[in-house]
Design a protein that fits this description.
single chain, 439 residues, alpha/beta, Pyrimidine Nucleoside Phosphorylase, Chain A, domain 2, Aldehyde Oxidoreductase, domain 3, 3 domains, four-stranded mixed beta sheet, four-stranded antiparallel beta sheet, 16 helices, globular, binds uracil
């Protein structure tokens, strides 16, 4: 075997000379080895990838090597195992709605999730706003709960794709996050290590997402599908709009409330329709029926109350107060609130989701630094969405925070985030396009 030189890898990638799978495997092994490849050489290679890219074979090899850098899970369950991943958005509480629906329809969903990142929220932070609920689950308890409730949500452990953990932290501080092959390998290494047979990827596109336009989002989707296919997994990628927050609430407890409203029967809302559509696609992938049958099955799981029962089972199984599913008022709202009013008549032409996400962080719903505590009751409830007509003085949104000074700061940002037009705009559809490994 040829001797491995990281400097040689940096030179080749810089000059767009493809690395062999073996070189990539050794590079990734060097990330977590003792002693590891020094950060300055890894950072130089990451920057070379940002400028010169990686081809599909290199991206797939990087994904697999990162997947194998830690534990790769195998589920021994008596039904199909599915997973869903969002590339990160604002107001995205899809997992809280989709997982209980899918579980109620006989498809297992052992879900590993993360915390909020920058202006985007995280499922773990949202769930931890439920009194008592823990996401640090012992593997045996996690499996037992998945068997009983059909799903459980645990915090991703350090043992899952540890090479990604280290590379991601380095990318975060070296301006090397926004590279499509690196994002693909980062996301897919963790997804493949989680061991699901069917994977649904929700690729967010727009101002509040990593991918700002459809061309880049479609390229990311194509690369992720290619990595999934190389690993023999069934995968669908749906490009969905992040030029507006998803649903009407942004925060933690406030998003759990909104998820409970959908599971209580509010399936006609934009959020409800979106979650039912995604759940039906996962059911179809898992072989539960045709697209039309799966749509009906997903709707019935909500109307019959079966999905809400699964949510209550999961909350109780993770030590939380399951009464929130019947009485969402048990979920906290922060002490101070303020409503923002429309300054003039007009139509809402844009809701800049990145700014809205950042405003929610200022209110306390996210973190400014890694060790900040979250205020579970902080957040924003929107009163209108893109394309709606408003009159001067109509409520645009309500903010919640613990301190008036936080409301002042967030208000200044939110005033720039909601744009009014004189003509009625045509908002983009929530689902832009769909790609699949089956195509
Ligand atoms: N989410 C990840 O896990 N990794 C990335 O690189 C981007 C988003």
């Amino acid at each position: 075997m040829a001797t491995f030189h990281i400097g040689e890898c940096i030179r080749k990638t810089k000059q767009q000379i493809p690395l062999s799978s073996e070189e990539i495997r050794q590079l990734v092994q060097g990330v977590t080895a003792e002693p590891p490849i020094p950060d300055y050489q890894l950072a130089a290679w990451l920057m070379a990838v940002c400028f010169s890219g990686l081809n599909d074979d290199e991206t797939a090899a990087l994904t697999m090597a990162m997947r194998d850098s830690g534990q790769v899970m195998h589920w021994e369950l008596d039904g199909p195992v599915a997973d869903k991943h969002s590339t990160g958005g604002v107001g995205d509480k899809t997992t809280l709605i989709l997982a209980p629906i899918v579980a109620a329809c006989g498809v297992y969903m052992p879900k590993m999730s993360g915390r909020g990142l920058g202006h985007t929220g995280g499922t773990i932070d949202k769930l931890e706003s439920i009194p008592g609920l823990s996401t640090a689950l012992d593997p045996a308890d996690f499996l037992a709960l998945v068997k009983k409730a059909g799903f459980a949500v645990a915090m991703q452990t350090g043992n899952l794709a540890p090479a990604d953990k280290k590379l991601y932290a380095l990318r975060d501080v070296t301006e090397t996050v926004d590279s499509i092959p690196l994002i693909c390998a980062s996301i897919m290494s963790k997804k493949l290590a989680t061991g699901a047979d069917h994977i649904l990827l929700d690729v967010k596109v727009g101002s509040g997402a990593f991918m700002k336009n459809d061309t880049d989002a479609a390229e990311l989707a194509r690369r992720m599908l290619s990595a999934a296919k190389a690993d023999g997994r069934d995968c669908t990628a749906i490009l969905t709009d992040m030029d507006r927050p998803l649903g009407m609430c942004i925060g933690n407890a406030i998003e759990v409330r909104e998820a409970i409203e959908v599971l209580a029967g509010d399936t006609g809302s934009e959020l409800g329709t979106f979650c039912i559509t995604l759940a039906a696609e996962l059911l179809r992938m898992a072989g539960r029926g045709t697209a039309a049958q799966c749509l009906k099955m997903a709707e019935q799981a909500v109307t019959s109350g079966a999905a809400m029962e699964r949510l209550a089972m999961m909350i109780a199984g993770q030590g939380g107060d399951a009464r929130v599913t019947e009485n969402p008022a048990l979920l906290k709202f922060s002490a101070c609130e303020r409503t923002l009013k429309a300054p003039r008549d007009g139509w809402i032409s844009a809701m800049l989701s990145e700014e809205i996400g950042r405003a929610s962080v200022l209110l306390g719903a996210g973190r400014m630094t890694k060790n900040d505590a979250i205020d579970p009751g902080a957040g924003i409830r929107l009163c209108c969405k893109n394309g709606d007509a408003v009159k001067r003085g109509d409520a645009l949104l309500t903010m919640y925070a613990e301190k008036e000074s936080q409301l002042d700061e967030a208000e200044a940002m939110l005033r720039q985030a909601i744009l009014l037009a004189d003509e009625k705009p045509e908002p983009a559809p929530l689902i832009h396009s769909t790609y699949s490994t089956a195509q």
